[in-house]
Every structure is written in C-alpha cells, then in structure tokens.
Amino acid sequence: MFRALSSTTVRWRPLEGEGLEHLTLRTIDTSLGAAIRAESVLIGERGATAYGARYRIDCDAGWRVFSFLIETTQGQRLHLMSDGHGHWRKADGTALPQFDGCVDIDLAGTPFTNTLPIRRLGLTRQSGTARLNMLYVPFDSFEPTVDGKHYTCLDDGKLYRYEAADGSFTADLPVDEDGLVLDYPTLFQRLSPETI
Question: How many alpha carbons fall within 13 Å on the CB side of residue 97?
C-alpha cells in the first residue's frame, strides 16, 4: 500500500495567516533496530500570536511513537517517551498514567501527525473506522490532553477521513506514497517539490 520509507522532505503552509513547515522524514538505526525519525521546523501565527517551533518524533518500524520533543524559540519545551503501547512518561522517568492507551500523538500546528495512525494501522476500506484516543499537544500551552479521533480509509493508500470524536471537525485527507498529507482542507496545503 505505502512504499518503504528511506528519506523524504516535504513542506506545508497554513491556509490561514502566514507560515511554513519544513519536515524531513528518514529511517535511523537504533539499539533496537531500524526506526523512523521525523524532524521539523515551523514558523507561523495563530490569531495575532507569532510562533517558531521545532519537533522531533521517533517511531519504531511499525510507526509506534516512542519519543517526541517539541520546543519553541522562546524556550518552551516538552519531551515525553512511550513504550509504544500507550504508556507515557516524562524524560525524567515520571509515569503519566492519565495518557494510558494513547499510542499516537497529535501535535497542533502540523498535518504530519495524521501520518502516524494512518501508517501504523494500515487501514483499508474494509477495515471500518478506527476510534483512537490520542495524546494531543496544543502549541499555545504545551499542556497535553487526551483527545478522541476517528480515521476511516476511503481509498486504499490514497484518501482517509479524519473526524474529531465529538463531531466538531471532519476532513478528507489525500496522502502520498509515504502516507504524508497532500492537502488538509481549511488548514494546510502541501507545497510542490519545486519550492523545496
């Protein structure tokens, strides 16, 4: 369905306000074997507030997140780790049982984190809808919460429906051969390779 990942770079721009995200996705070798690393830099504005941030997400070969770090240019920072089965802890080892069961993460301000459940679950049209609790991190506070999300495959390897569990938002997300979002209606647009 999706091609084996080697290394790729993409950019998205927000559809509201100014901004840009530059993401590099690649495989890395770890003591546990092959893994996937996403590294990104974002600049933009939400409302009247400008922001600059970067993040790094490390996943195993099955796209289960085992570590992420996000920090702003103002010094705000959040670094959490997981066992890949929905058990989270701070970088100092402090357990975070309030996030038990959250295998995937959702970082506000980027379309990339939609790729994580899409690749991890390998959804097809016959799969039905996956109902997930995700660890959601808003960019304004960096205070994670649990947020319900639903994913449904509409066209194998090409189109997925994202729905907020409370019904407040729905978007059909076309993806490329790596499972990366091409267009996120009302929020983000992928830039062509010629602009990278």
Answer: 0
What is the rounded distance in angstroms from the CA atom of residue 137 to the CA atom of residue 145?
7
Q: Exposed/middle/buried for 22, CB within 10 Å: 0-12, 13-18, 19+?
A: middle
Q: Which residues contact 94 (CB under 8 A, 6 or more apart)?
A: none
DSSP characters over 44-112? EEETTEEEEEEEEEEEETT--EEEEEEEETTS-EEEEEE-SSS-EEETT--B-GGGTT--SEEETT-SG
pTM score over 0.85: yes
Q: Give CA torsion, residues 110, 14, 52, 60, to 10 deg.
A: 20
Q: How many CA atoms lie within 13 A of 104 on its CB side?
A: 24
Rounded to whole angstroms, how far apart are CA atoms 134 and 145? 8
Dihedral pair phi/psi, residue 183, rounded to 5°: -150, 130
Q: List, for residues 118-167, the tens digit of each pLDDT value.
A: 999 999 999 989 999 999 999 888 999 999 999 999 999 999 999 999 99
> Which residues, including other chains, have CB under 8 Å from residue 112's CB and lie 6 or more apart?
21, 23, 38, 40, 57, 180, 181
